[in-house]
């Protein structure tokens, strides 16, 4: 028995490796050739000055920069350089360049006159119009004022709220796709699958491999990624979880195994695709403007598709024989088995479904925030928060929980710093457990 | 390949302060999981709190060493209460999710740029251990034998770190053969039976959580003495490594966490040395050194899986004492 399981383990790993290695090898070379950035906002910069000797063999000290909008230089923008009793204002030339010669090394204030920027061009969000620079080790310093399209017109609170709500719904719907997998697996097998995030990453990486590296149409790439995700889910069950269930491994033990699996998979991904974020440049980033909202085509498609798929899953669970059997197994596996339901088959179907849904969520995350090796793990806790909020083991609870988490994550940025938005959702999780530990749709018996 | 160097580095890991810190954190986790049966997946948070409480007291408030250590203690006790009050009544797997969530909340909080003045945000904190090295009684110079040759300061942090580990082990030994230890172990075996005997299960769980958390925060202090505080170090991976260490040595055993930490770090060091060596001599020319580092973590994950499936009691453990009861 022990020998057989070890063999099974060796085979699952080789499958993982083979799957990712076979496509990962060209990945390394191709990613280098891919364009470094698809950012439409161009960072204007002369290369940073290389360290020069401090002795002033030339007596000129210059402060300079380029102001660009997109790829075009912006003409006649006023820049003032002051400090050390020196004050000079210059305008940018036709290429957007400006240069000020200062008399001596020291600290200067460089200020950009925002009123001279042409309409539609503004400093990128979070950039100060005035900067302190120090000329000490070098004779020249370049100062950057990154610009972007003027996004500050949408500062009205109502509009901000609307934007955040839409973003939150989008995030929540994506989360729901992945979280339903977690909750179905928990319902039917009792396992808290910590490797679910890696199923999401799997879908994202596959869509990147087929859509970007192999250049397939994004629709085809998505279908391939979802199919492979289903296979991946099936393999998860067939190679690891089914043998473990046969072996009678306890649930908490299985949970720790899933943590180990999550570490293994994550580093296998990192090994193959490297640490850099991969851009999903598949041409779906055309902006769509609806009132105050600026969305991309990808966002609209992913929201629409999520709704359709979630409705389909709801139909499957409530109206089809297999779906009803799934809910029966979730409710009481022994009773379901006694009434003639093949529990192992249902669990297999649940894993396949979870794999496919997670992969689809992964593809959409890839379109929404690019591809990285630990993207799934980063949202794993959001998924757990969502299913726990909704009530572990209930599929519709997962949907509601996901949307609550999604909205909360995005709406919290109205009051909290954006880098705390995930923390706020986790705080809500803990607060809900205080008041209603079984979650929104859960039942009392599920807590101990 | 320079085997002398590879083996020397691996031997150095046996007594390194990092190994001591991981061992101490695993001793704390062992109180939580091994003896009391609490599924704490937030041990990294206790280390984070110890480290930041210590560093912030020194840097922001200019506190002397002993006050900084007391601050680390106090912060971890407070955190244990905040964590325990809502969660200790929940079922085991809920507790796991909540503790891992709290650990991530703490990491988000110390990383946020709005607290840069206090926590240093993503850059972390450094230059806070002067007070610790000032009281080093060892004379200047480098001494030792074989691969264990260190400066006076390096010996000082090792002596203190391992001294605390041994004291903690002694304390656990005494506690677990006391009536308190018997109640705590009974809570692990059957909560309802203990409750029926009139014991306050919730209170015992809370005491265990606080005690293990204090060890975790001390581990955090030892961990940062030879280095800077980096928020990225306190991710969920740290918790999982401590779990691996505890399960490797054996949960609910006295020396399991120490031996587990030693094996963990020696094996990590050996695999790194051997992989780098193989890349150097051109046998593994198709992988880079950073990929070699990643292979080590694949091995950690595999070790965790295989351990839990095939030998959940670890090296020294007794299968009967293992509390994978759910």
Number of domains of chain B: 1
Q: Which pair has the most extensive contact?
A: A-B, 50 and 49 residues
Major sheet: arrangement of strands of chain B: 1-2
For the biggest sheet of chain B, the summary is: 2 strands, antiparallel
Which class of the largest domain in chain A in CATH terms? Mainly Alpha
Give the rounded overall mean pLDDT of chain A: 78
Q: In total, how many beta strands of chain B?
A: 2
Q: Specify the structural class of chain A.
A: alpha+beta
Spatial extent as radius of gyration of chain B: 20 Å
Strand order of the largest sheet of chain A: 5-4-7-9
The helix-strand sequence of chain A is HEEEEEEEEEEEHHHHEEHHHHHHH
Structure characteristics:
heterodimer, A: ABC transporter involved in vitamin B12 uptake, BtuC, 12 helices, 13 strands, elongated, B: 326 residues, mainly alpha, 14 helices, 70% helix, LivM-like (chain B), Amino acid/amide ABC transporter membrane protein 2, HAAT family (chain B), transmembrane (chain B), ABC_transp_permease (chain B)
